[in-house]
Each structure stands twice: as C-alpha cells, then as structure tokens.
Prior knowledge:
Number of helices of chain A: 2
Largest sheet of chain A: 5 strands, mixed
CATH class of chain A: Alpha Beta
Shape of chain A: globular
Largest interface: A-B, 38 and 52 residues
Strand content of chain B: under 5%
Radius of gyration of chain A: 11 Å
Strand content of chain A: 35-45%
Oligomer: heterodimer
Distance between the termini of chain B: 34 Å
Strand order of the largest sheet of chain A: 1-2-3-5-4
Number of domains of chain B: 1
Number of strands of chain B: 0
Helix content of chain A: 25-40%
Distance between the termini of chain A: 24 Å
Number of helices of chain B: 20
CATH topology of chain A: Translation Initiation Factor IF3
Structural class of chain B: mainly alpha
Order of helices and strands of chain A: EEHEHEE
CATH architecture of chain A: 2-Layer Sandwich
Number of strands of chain A: 5
Shape of chain B: globular
Number of domains of chain A: 1
Amino acid sequence: MKFEKRSDGQYLLDVKGYVCPHPQLYTKKALGRLQAGEVLEVQFDNPSSGESIATMCDNTGDEILDRKQEAGLFVWQIRKI
Amino acid sequence: MSEAKRKFWAFAIVAVLVLVSAGTYLYHEYYLYLSVYLWFGVVYGMCLQYGRFCFSSAFRDLFAVGVPRMAVGIMIAIALFGLVGAFVSATGLSTFHSAPTSLHAVIAGFIFGVGMCFAGGCASGSMYKTGEGNMNAAIVILSISITQAIFVDVGGWTNSLVPEAWKASAAAKGLPASITVSDGWVDQYLAGYIWDQPVLSFASMLGWTDHSVAGAFVGNFLLGVVLPGALLLVVVYLFWSRRAFMRKRLPAGTRAAGWRDELAGYGAMIVASKRTAIAGLALGIAAGLHMYAIQGLRVKYGVKNAGTLLERLGFDFGLSVNGTVFDPGYWYVTTQEAQWVGWVMHKLGWNQMDNIFFGFNNGIPNPLINPADWMSISLFGGAAIMALLHNEFKFKKPTLETAVWAIIGGALMGIGSRLGLGCNVGAFFVRVSQGDPSGWLFGLGMVGGAYIGVKFFNWWTERRMAREFAAS
C-alpha cells in the first residue's frame, strides 16, 4: 500500500494487488484524513472494491470525479466533500 | 490485452467447454449428468463475476464501510432461489435435504466468517476472483481445500479432545469396519454429535411436509425466507442506508420523513446496485433450475446418486463405502474442493477412505469424472469469460502480506466449512433458501465472524495508514 501527497490538495492511494476489504478500507481511511475539496486518486485492481467504494462515496457525499479502467486496473479521482 | 484477444480467449473457453460436453456425451449419454453441473457452473461463475457477488462483502462491508449493496443482492438471490425451490419442492423433484440444527452452525459460521474476512472473499467469491486472474484468491481456494482434507482425517492426540458422550454415540452407530470412527475428531463429531441433532425445516416445524404446497410455499418460502429476509433488510436500511437517502431526499429543515419516503428509501436500497441485483436474480433462478434438472436426470436414469452412474461407466475407484460420491444436486462449493486434495493425498499414500467425510459420505473419485468438480472448474471458466468480456481480467501475483492473509483465511474457512457441513453457499445460501433454519444459524455466526474480522482489519489498516500519512 502506498499513500503519498502529490501536490497541494492532491493525494495518491495505490492499493494495487490488494483484495477486499483492503482497497475500500484504505480509501475510507485516506478520505477521512483529507480536507474538504482535496482530491484522492485511488489505484486498485480488485473490481469488486469499485462497487463498494462507489456506494461508500454515494453515502458520504464524496464526489467521484473520474473513473478510468484499463486491463483490470482502475484509477478513480475522488473529491472529499 | 487487446479487445480482439480478450474475445478470442472468452470464446476459446466456451469452445473447450462445448467440446467437453459434446465429446463426452457422444462417448456415453451418462456424461450429460456431469455436463448439467458443468453448464450451471458456467452460469454461476458469470453471475458471480458480473455482480461482484461475494458473501463476505455482504457482512463485512456493512461493518467496514457501511455499504449494504451485497447484503441486498444476496437477499434477492435467496428469495428467488427460495421461490423456484418452492416450485421444485412442491413437484416432489427437490434434491435438497435439511441439515442437523444446533449451536454448532453458529460456531462454524463464526469461524468461517472470520476466515472470509482474512481471505478477502468467501469460498464462492474466491472462486470467481480466481477466474478473474487473481492468484491470491487461488491460494485461498488451495488453503480451504488442503485444510478440509487434513481436518476431516486428523486423529492422534485430537481424539483425546472428543467428549466421552460423542465417543459412545459414534461407536453405537454401527458404521462399516472400513470407517475407523474411533480415530478422528471430525468422525466422532459427525457420528457422535451432529447426526444426533434434529433435522428441521420451517415446514416441518409447522406440521407440514417439505413437498406439500403449504409446506413449500407458506412454511419454507414465506415464513422461512421472505419474512426474515424482509425484516433483515429493514434493519440494514435503518442502520446503513436510510440516513444517506434521506439526506438527499429531504434537505435539512424541509419536512419530517413519512411512510412514502421510507418506502422509497427501502426501494432505492434494493435497486442501488443494478449489477448485484441482476446477478442475484439470475443466480437465484439458476440455482432452483439446477435442482430441477439434476433430479430430472436422476429419474431418467433411475439413480439416486451419481456414484451409480460412475459405477455403470466402469469407474469404481473413489466411491464411498455406500457406493456414492458427492452429488448435491444443487450449487455447492467446498466439498468438491476438499475432494481434489483428498484424492491426491490418497494417491500419495494417506488413506482418506477410512473417515466419514470421504469414505462414508462423499468418496474421492478422480477429479476428471467428479460431477461437482465439473461445476467448480467451469465456475472458474464462467468468471473468466465474464471478466474477459468486460476488460476486467488481470493476472495478479500475490504479495507476501496478501498470501499470508489468504492462507490463514482459507484455513479458517476450511475448518468452518467442515464443522458447519458447508460454506457460505452450501451451509448458508442453499439452506436458508430452502427453509432450513440451520442456514440462518450459520449466517448468524458469519455476521459475528465478519464483525470480528473487520475489527481486526480496521486496526491493521489504521496503523498502516497513520504511518503512510505521517510520511507523506
């Protein structure tokens, strides 16, 4: 697992290789540490985690700005509300 | 991988399965029986992958991230399977038999629930993820299989842990001499305790038979599935879905929520994840039709178990002392996985035919002609087909950390499966759907296990995230 600050208000969470529940748990914990308006890029390759992360954001109100998918790799941009 | 390549591999899998079915049928029509398992396995694999259908997620994600989508999807699948199962039961063609009911199901479910949290998926979830190319999930399957095969035959010092009452009861069962019932913890647990527990259904508790219309539809389906399922979803709605729905529907200070709002919220929760709901519908219907198809073939061929067909085909190795093999007649997962390893161990010199699980009940036929194995292998294939077609197939190597979780989780699921006489599919999904109260007890245990598993991973991930955040 890798979590790093890329620039002001931009963070990266790399949870490639992890299966449930790690990607959604790390995403929840990372978003919990961000300030409102900051953006988290989540990279994961466990498809089922995407369903959980999407519903979690829907519940919390956090906004998924972009979802990219290529060859089993998912790259999502999430803005903390 | 390009789209053309992905399509090629998806169709290649279908072509291989068609060739297996057609070729074996041309060799002998009895192989149609195995092919029914095979094609339902494909359907299960496709549905599981399409809906990201994981029983572990149903319980774990409620506690971990407050997401109810899979709990809802599973309830839809259970209700549909229950409805189709009620039709099949009422026609007298059900292959289902209730399991003994006692506290053991809760304990087994708890161990299984902790295991599926550690493993990152339940038994069926790990199978479809293996089909997606996830080698971590393959380790889970291997761990479940090896643990079961060892656990059911382990004797020695574990015999001293067996209560005297179990020993006496097991010895009194009069099992064949080839089954060494006094040597083996699981043997004495099964013959000395489990077999003495009551076998119930909601229909039988109300005085109906499972095959009567009232028993099948009112007892087992309405009272055993629909009512508790709907109540459980009300709890899920109130605790995990209502707040977010009302926040969007009723902005602060507009008005108080009324019954229409609550019903709209409940409905919105049901259809929140279309993929999961669609997969649940398809799984439920397929699981019911599977029972119907297998029982139809049993009637056609005049058999009660596939062991007779294998014997007629000239395969006599690996049949149980009763001449049977594992042939549930519906969706099942863990037993055939144990049989793979049991067969290998037996071939390597570890006698696996002297215990009840293999030697008396399920046998260890060659995996190539094991009906339930055809279902499991094709489940991998069905999941791979769906993953390839949706650009979600990715070969993933495990890391040391994830491999350790997979081995521990798989081992706990293997032990839980054997104590509970099935996994999340056989001991929970199928039993609950068919009105067997022991299924709900196993589910209760799984919820408890998932809660403990989530507590552990909350602590683990919090620790790591705090470290990473401090360094960022």
